[in-house]
Amino acid sequence: MRDNIKGGALTEVTFFVLLSLYQPKHGYAIMQFIEEKTNGRLTLGAGTLYGALTSLEEKGWIAPHGNTDGRKKEYLITGAGKEVCDRELLRLKELVKAAENIMEE
User: Fold this and answer.
1) Would you tell me which of 63, 65, 86, 94 could form a disulfide with 24, CB atoms 3.0–4.6 Å apart?
2) 82, 62 in Cβ contact below 8 A?
3) What are the b/e assignments for 61-97, b being 16+ CB within 10 Å?
4) What is the Cα–Cα distance from 82 to 22, expressed in whole angstroms?
5) Which candidate, 43, 40, 33, places its Cα nearest to that of 74?
6) Which domain holds residue 56?
7) pTM to 2 decimal places
8) CATH of the domain at 75
9) What is the band of 4 on the pLDDT scale with cuts at 50, 70, 90?
10) Distance between alpha carbon 95 and the CA centroid of its chain, in Å?
11) pLDDT digit string, tens, across residues 50-101
């Protein structure tokens, strides 16, 4: 994953995966959430999603939640993941504000 841990931009997929995990979800539910919240603009394949989940877990941004013995392993965002989302939301708001200012000139 190309996400910059030091406060740079997240990929859109990463941001939406993190947002989806403010409530515990398994893989298929994450894919449905992202497709629904983006009105079908973003759709994830299983390989992309599970690669992202592995990477996010390694970074400490998400963690397994509940019973992890079953087929449907659920994940939940961690405190560190929420901090990353907060920074990304602030970055996006600043980006939009700058773009609006430029376009109004």
Assistant:
1) 65
2) no
3) bbbebeeeeeeeebbebbeebeebbeebeeeeeeeee
4) 8
5) 33
6) 12-104
7) 0.88
8) 1.10.10.10
9) low
10) 18
11) 999 999 999 999 999 987 666 788 999 999 999 999 999 999 999 999 999 9
